[in-house]
């Protein structure tokens, strides 16, 4: 039963990572009223929830050898995903276009904020950004320590976290690539390696 849940979790991470990567490429524009951008942000919301639901399966596969690192990395990465890919996406998909249509004083015709943004909003965005950087790096290190997934997945997660500081969109895409590889393996294509790194899961599923 646990083996099946881990595989479902891996498949969920794989699909969610792929969808979010496509959304990042297609919906990365500066016009908030563009229907393509609005649609992309709307799709990002359920994809973000899918990723959050699937990530515990990756953590479980690493739990026996990198429990603390994977747990902290998961918490930080999840917080960032919920802020950027759910809360902010909801704002960009539904609220910002409405503000533009209402000719809201603090928003330009393309949806850019005019003047100083709310302090609390800026604080949350900055915190989520650093959470993404640290969380992605910790997940990559946890993969290296546990040996649950390939080194390529680990390197991409670590590199994605580092690149997210100077170039956030590219770093996000690189991190998603690492998650997609780990999800691909956990979904069944290289499942034996993930189970071997987690004796508890192997014993339960036997």
Could you tell me the radius of gyration in angstroms? 18 Å
Q: What is the β-strand count?
A: 0
Number of distinct helices: 7
Topology pattern, helix = H, strand = E: HHHHHHH
Ends apart, CA distance between termini: 9 Å
Which whole number gives the mean pLDDT?
87
Structural features, described:
With about 210 residues, this protein is mainly α. The protein has one domain (about 1-205). About 80% of the residues lie in helices and about 0% in strands. The protein has helices at about 1-25, 35-100, 120-145, 150-165, 170-190, 190-195, 200-205. Helix 1 packs antiparallel against helix 5, helix 2 packs antiparallel against helix 3 (about 120-145) and helix 3 (about 120-145) runs antiparallel to helix 4. About 45% of the residues are buried.
Write the layout of secondary structure elements.
Layout: H1 2-26, H2 35-101, H3 119-146, H4 151-163, H5 168-189, H6 191-196, H7 199-205
Helix pairs in contact: 1-2, 1-5, 2-3, 3-4, 3-5, 4-5
Please tag this protein with its features.
7 helices, 206 residues, disordered C terminus, 82% helix, mainly alpha
Question: What does this entry show, briefly?
Answer:
The protein has helices at about 1-25, 35-100, 120-145, 150-165, 170-190, 190-195, 200-205.
């Amino acid at each position: 039963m646990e083996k099946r849940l881990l595989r479902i979790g891996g498949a969920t991470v794989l699909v969610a990572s792929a969808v979010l990567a496509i959304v990042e490429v297609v919906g990365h524009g500066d016009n908030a009223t563009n229907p393509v951008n609005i649609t992309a942000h709307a799709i990002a919301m359920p994809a973000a929830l899918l990723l959050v639901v699937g990530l515990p399966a990756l953590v479980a596969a690493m739990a026996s050898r990198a429990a603390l690192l994977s747990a902290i990395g998961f918490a930080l990465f999840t917080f960032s995903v919920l802020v950027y890919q759910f809360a902010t996406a909801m704002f960009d998909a539904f609220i910002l276009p409405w503000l533009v249509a209402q000719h809201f004083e603090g928003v330009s015709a393309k949806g850019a904020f005019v003047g100083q943004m709310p302090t609390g909003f800026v604080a949350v965005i900055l915190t989520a950004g650093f959470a993404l950087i640290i969380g992605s790096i910790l997940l990559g290190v946890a993969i290296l320590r546990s040996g649950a997934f390939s080194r390529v997945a680990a390197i991409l997660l670590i590199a994605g976290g580092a690149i997210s500081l100077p170039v956030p969109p590219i770093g996000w895409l690189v991190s998603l690539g690492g998650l997609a590889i780990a999800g691909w393996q956990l979904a069944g294509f290289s499942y034996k390696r993930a189970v071997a790194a987690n004796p508890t899961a192997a014993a339960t599923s036997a």
